[in-house]
Model the fold of this input.
Amino acid sequence: MKVLVVGGAGYIGSHMVKLLLDAGHRVVTLDNLESGHRDAVSGGDFLHGDLADRSLLDVLFTQHDFDGVMHFASYIQVGESVRLPGKYYRNNFSNTLNLLDAMVGHDVRRFIFSSTAALFGEPNYTPIDEAHPRQPINPYGVSKWMVERVLADYDLAHGLKSVCLRYFNAAGAHPSGLLGERHDPETHLIPLVLRAASGRLDAIGVFGTDYDTIDGTCIRDYVHVVDLCTAHLLALEQLLEGGASDAFNLGNGNGFSVREVIDAARRVTQRPIRVTELDRRPGDPARLVADANRAHKELDWRPQYADLEVILAHAWARELQHCTTEG
Done:
């Protein structure tokens, strides 16, 4: 296959590029490098550009005959989306429309969309399956839900087939240690916990200790980034075989509390990790856990790295490499 990976210099996108290349496929990466890193793209062709540039997209699709497109180029910070909704609607929604229109105009009809559990909002029940109502409570989640709605219309109108993959908490790093999370600012729990272990952070803040959970802290479903990318590849292969448009929730189906993550990190790193207990953050549900049974059945997807300590060990190897190379 020849695949366009939009946002392929970012955390998940760079892992996707490597997986595709390792599987023998041809890859073109499009990234504006606003939050991605050129050195994270492990091969293939690279184009520095933005989805807002329709003329660039037309040139790109004229020059290449793509079998499919994978989209990872969204802004992802929930809090920022509340403060700057226009930024999120322009990039996550309007720019995605530019991409879809370019695909239709150049007869590229297979699209894999990096979606999110945030479109479910405050869960009515857990684990969350695909039938759960979509009721996003912030512009980030709304922007993703808007794209999913548009994709359904583009299927009917233009025959553009898509698979939306709604993942919960992407985590971990490539087992080689060569790729990992490099967000700025970093907001995800696991890399922050490991920074506290390595000494790059004084302590890890725990937001809320009075939830109705096993230890009073929030429970989340962590899925390894390589397993997420495997699901993307399986979804694209399904579309190439004539599969219909669909959407799947991706997770391990197991929830771990914040305290459990910290305790597991202490075991993996053999380092002390200082904790600061803070007030709850508004809008943080007590539990977010995926029901991924449809992905297991329909995509034949099975997470390879489901164990929390394995996820942490891979991320820790990357953190140690970062400390070695950056000081």
In short: The mean pLDDT is 95. Residues 85-105 form the longest helix (21 residues). The longest strand covers residues 110-116. The chain has two domains: 2-170+224-250, 189-220+253-326.
